[in-house]
Amino acid sequence: MKEEIENNFKNAEFELEKGSGGDFIVEVDGKVIFSKNDLPRPRFPEDGEILKLIKN
Known about the structure:
Strand order of the largest sheet: 1-2
Structural class: alpha+beta
Helix content: 25-40%
Number of strands: 2
Largest sheet: 2 strands, antiparallel
């Protein structure tokens, strides 16, 4: 996922926060665009899903 974003957004910066709560959250400019646990059935993003959300 990181490589896919880097290939499309050359100035992208990443920060990984390790935790133990089982969360997987993606934020862009302080706004949550994907949260595994906010879905009806928790899951990780599919290939290309985060990139599509960023572009929208």
